[in-house]
Amino acid sequence: MLLTLGIIVGLVGVYYVFMNVYPIFGRKPSRDEMKKFAKSPQYGLDKFENPVPAMMNMSFSTTLGILRDMIKGSPNRRPATSLAMDKPQFIGNGDTSVTWFGHSASLLMIDGKSLLLDPMFGRTPSPFPWLGKNRYSNGIPFEIAELPHIDAVILSHDHYDHLDYGSIMKLKDKVNRFIVPLGVSGHLIRWGVPAAKIEEHDWWEEFTYQGLELACTPANHFSGRSVNDRGATLWCSWVIKGKQSNIYFSGDSGYTPHFKHIGDKYGPFDLTLMECGQYDERWADIHLMPEETVQAHLDVKGKVMLPIHWGAFTLAMHDWNDPVTRAVRAAQEKGVEIVTPRIGQTITLRGSDIGNYTKTDWWVQA
């Protein structure tokens, strides 16, 4: 019994040391920070919560079904070959432009400002990035050193497929400001980002940054980077409004009335970057199904929709190109203008019209 107890205590000790020494996990909020978070309407019982409860069906039979689907796999859950990439354009011409890098990582140029949205540029979304398969494109279409100086990095939440330690370490000296939801600053500070360069926001907070009008808006999702920090930090979507364009970035979310509330308050939007991928009926409360992606775009009063959160990693059981195929079909059925750029392709928004964009179903040939 003493030996068993000693082994258990030793394992707990190793786990505690590892969690506190290994930087990729980030940092949980302190007690003082949690007291500040308690002022947020989204905070309760020592964690952030969704107004609409987000449930994952994790019954025994459902869990067995997920395991069966994962083991069974599918020949089309990854592309047969590495996805081709375009060389992005980092010098703007004054118009609003967006460059999608796969999954949710994008560069938004608006009113002469450069904003990186959820810049996950790593090989795999994991606390152990040397494990697992590389992203579908086998890299990104540029070296981080090639990026212009970034006015702001805007983060939606702290999951590994959105907040990447390796990417932040390479980016942090090129960025003026990190704009994040409540609690996420702790990760960045642990990774060497000065606190003075970070600002945190709660849902429905409005503020300006270098002439841009921004609002931190709701999403129905969750957060966490380890086994005991679910809900320790907030998740969100973002409204980014300049003189020329009004942009909506959905982050990750299930479908709830919050999209209509955002549209009523801040719409219409010239362009929406809407989550579309890594979905399953068993976790539909926290990720949009492709048809819901199109409906959410309509709810926020979007004009042109760019589907994101696909094209880089296999995080669900569907075919890798199923999200865009279904989203395009749903958009056509509802008369929604949808743009599907290749990875690295820079598209320009002139007013509410896409300028230099050629529509192709490139994912069919990939």
Automatic annotation (TrEMBL):
Keywords assigned: Membrane, Transmembrane, Transmembrane helix
Gene3D superfamilies: Ribonuclease Z/Hydroxyacylglutathione hydrolase-like
Transmembrane segments: 6-25
Pfam families recorded: Lactamase_B_2
Domain Metallo-beta-lactamase: from-to ranges: 115-310
InterPro entries for the chain: Metallo-B-lactamas (IPR001279), NAPE-PLD (IPR024884), RibonucZ/Hydroxyglut_hydro (IPR036866)
Catalytic activity: 3',5'-cyclic UMP + H2O = UMP + H(+); 3',5'-cyclic CMP + H2O = CMP + H(+)
Keyword hit for Transmembrane helix: yes
Role, per record: Counteracts the endogenous Pycsar antiviral defense system. Phosphodiesterase that enables metal-dependent hydrolysis of host cyclic nucleotide Pycsar defense signals such as cCMP and cUMP.
UniProt-recorded name of the protein: L-ascorbate metabolism protein UlaG (Beta-lactamase superfamily)
Native source species: Paenibacillus qinlingensis
